[in-house]
C-alpha cells in the first residue's frame, strides 16, 4: 500500500475527499499534515508520494518525480496567499511569516524583497493573523486563515495576483511528488485522475462540509474552490512552474535548475 501525504488546507479537500470515498481498493494510505511537514516526511522516506510545496519539489527535483496531471495552482487572485502590511513596505522592520508552506515565503521574496529593507526581520509565527499583525509590522498569511481576511488600516497584496500581473503565468503552489525507488504504474495515475475529476464534480458537497467545519460562508468557499484554484498540471502550469524555477535559481534560492521528470509516462497509457 502506498503512503500518500496530503495537506490539510481547504484547497486539498476535493482530492482528499474523493480518495477517501474511493475506499481501500485504491491501496493508497492517506496521511494528513501541513505542506512543509509533508515535504520533510517525503524526503525522510516516511511517505511514498505527497502533495508538497512547489519550492520543495524544485529543491530536490534531481531525486523527486512529478505525478502527472495534478497540482494546486492559480491564475490571478487566489485569496489564500496574502502579504498584509500596516505600513509602506519599504518602512517595515518586522515581518511575521507563516512557514507551513515554504513556496509562499519564496514567492514573497521573489516579488517584494527589493522593496523591503535588507535589515528586515523575518519571524516565523503560528498561523494567527491578528496576533501576527499585533506584534509585527506586516504578515504573510496563507491557507485557510487568509480566506476572506480583512483588517482596517492595512494594505493587502494577493501574491498570486501579483505574480500573474508581473509574469502573465499560472502559479503552481503545490505538486504531488514521488520519492526515489517508488514505482508508479498506470493504475495509480488513473486513481488520482479519477479522484481529481470526482472531487471537482462534487465541490458543492465539499463546500457544504467545509462550511460546517470551518464556519466560512458557502459562497466564499465555492468561489475559492471553483474559480480560484486550478487542479491540473498541464502546459500552462508546467510553464509557470518552470518560470518560477528559473527565478528561484537566479535569486540563489535553489542550487540548480533540473529538468522535470514524471513518475509515469502518460504517453504509454
Describe the protein's architecture and organization.
The protein has helices at residues 13-22, 35-43, 54-59, 102-112, 129-135, 159-167, 186-201, 203-214, 218-228, 235-250; strands at residues 2-7, 28-33, 49-53, 65-74, 81-85, 94-98, 121-125, 138-142, 155-158, 171-178. It has 269 residues and is of the alpha/beta class. The chain has 2 domains: 2-73 and 170-268, D-Maltodextrin-Binding Protein, domain 2; 81-167, D-Maltodextrin-Binding Protein, domain 2, CATH 3.40.190.
- Identify low-pLDDT runs: none
Distance between the termini: 22 Å
* CATH topology assignment of the largest domain: D-Maltodextrin-Binding Protein, domain 2
Order of helices and strands: EHEHEHEEEHEHEEHEHHHH
CATH architecture of the largest domain: 3-Layer(aba) Sandwich
The fraction of residues in strands falls at 15-25%
Helix content: 25-40%
Mean pLDDT: 94
Number of domains: 2
Number of H- or I-type helical stretches: 10
**CATH H-level superfamily title of the largest domain:** Periplasmic binding protein-like II
What would you report as the Rg, rounded to the nearest angstrom? Answer: 18 Å
Keywords summarizing the entry:
single chain, 269 residues, alpha/beta, D-Maltodextrin-Binding Protein, domain 2, five-stranded mixed beta sheet, 10 helices
Write the layout of secondary structure elements.
Blueprint: E1 2-7, H1 13-22, E2 28-33, H2 35-43, E3 49-53, H3 54-59, E4 65-74, E5 81-85, E6 94-98, H4 102-112, E7 121-125, H5 129-135, E8 138-142, E9 155-158, H6 159-167, E10 171-178, H7 186-201, H8 203-214, H9 218-228, H10 235-250
Parallel strand pairs: 1-2, 1-3, 6-7, 6-8
Antiparallel strand pairs: 3-10, 4-10, 5-8, 5-9
Helix pairs in contact: 1-7, 8-9
Amino acid at each position: 500500500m502506498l503512503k500518500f501525504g496530503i495537506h490539510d488546507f481547504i484547497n486539498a479537500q476535493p482530492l482528499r475527499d474523493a480518495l477517501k470515498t474511493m475506499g481501500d481498493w485504491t491501496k493508497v494510505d492517506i496521511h494528513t499534515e501541513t505542506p512543509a511537514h509533508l515535504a520533510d516526511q517525503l524526503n525522510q522516506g516516511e511517505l511514498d508520494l505527497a502533495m508538497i510545496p512547489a519550492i520543495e519539489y524544485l529543491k530536490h527535483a534531481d531525486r523527486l518525480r512529478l505525478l502527472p496531471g495534478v497540482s494546486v495552482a492559480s491564475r490571478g487572485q487566489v485569496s489564500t496567499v496574502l502579504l498584509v502590511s500596516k505600513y509602506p513596505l519599504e518602512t517595515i522592520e518586522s515581518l511575521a511569516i507563516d512557514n507551513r508552506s515554504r513556496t509562499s515565503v519564496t514567492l514573497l521574496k521573489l516579488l517584494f524583497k527589493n522593496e523591503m529593507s535588507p535589515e528586515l526581520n523575518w519571524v516565523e509565527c503560528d498561523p494567527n493573523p491578528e496576533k501576527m499583525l499585533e506584534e509585527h509590522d506586516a504578515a504573510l498569511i496563507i491557507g485557510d486563515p487568509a480566506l476572506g481576511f480583512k483588517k482596517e488600516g492595512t494594505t493587502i497584496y494577493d501574491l498570486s495576483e501579483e505574480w500573474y500581473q508581473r509574469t502573465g503565468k499560472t502559479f503552481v503552489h503545490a505538486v504531488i511528488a514521488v520519492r526515489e525507488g517508488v514505482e508508479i504504474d498506470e493504475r495509480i495515475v488513473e486513481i488520482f485522475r479519477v479522484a481529481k475529476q470526482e472531487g471537482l464534480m462534487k465541490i458543492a458537497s465539499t463546500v457544504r462540509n467545509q462550511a460546517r467545519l470551518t464556519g466560512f460562508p458557502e459562497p466564499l468557499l465555492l468561489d475559492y474552490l471553483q474559480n480560484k484554484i486550478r487542479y491540473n498540471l498541464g502546459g500552462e502550469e508546467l510553464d509557470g512552474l518552470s518560470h518560477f524555477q528559473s527565478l528561484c535559481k537566479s535569486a540563489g534560492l535553489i542550487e540548480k535548475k533540473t529538468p522535470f521528470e514524471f513518475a509515469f509516462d502518460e504517453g504509454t497509457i
